[in-house]
Design brief:
133 residues, 8 strands
């Protein structure tokens, strides 16, 4: 009986840990965009980033401007809601900033393959990020 009780406690403890980590291993991670199928990466040293915290908040840089918002994550499904951000004019990134944030809001699933975060829209690869150290 003690073993069953201890097993039950262990299962509950592991579940609570996985809920705190949540988000399939992307909680408290920072990523840098390095592939953008179907879009041209701007010719700049500025980077597009995407950060996840443990409370489903997302933030990052859209090459020049900062942004933040909330994400709903369930298994490998993701929905990034409205994003708010700064609005500095950055000529060298042109229209890439708007396309980047709109692209983030359009994705609906993700996976991590070989240490890279892949964001997908309807099963099609939309963006690939490498982990920022």
């Amino acid at each position: 009986m003690k073993r069953i009780f201890l097993g039950f406690i262990l299962v509950i403890a592991l579940q609570s840990c996985s809920e705190k980590l949540g988000m399939n291993g992307i909680a408290n991670t920072k990523w840098v965009l390095n592939e953008w199928p179907g879009q041209a990466m701007p010719n700049t040293t500025k980077k597009a980033t995407l950060n996840f915290d443990a409370d489903h908040k997302v933030s990052g840089k859209s090459f020049c401007n900062g942004f933040g918002g909330m994400a709903t994550i369930d298994g490998n499904k993701i929905k990034i809601g409205e994003l708010i951000g700064t609005m500095m004019y950055c000529e060298d990134v042109g229209q890439a900033e708007g396309k980047y944030t709109e692209g983030l809001k359009s994705v609906n699933s993700f996976k991590i393959v070989d240490g890279k975060l892949q964001l997908l829209k309807d099963g099609q690869l939309a963006m690939v990020f490498t982990k920022e150290e």
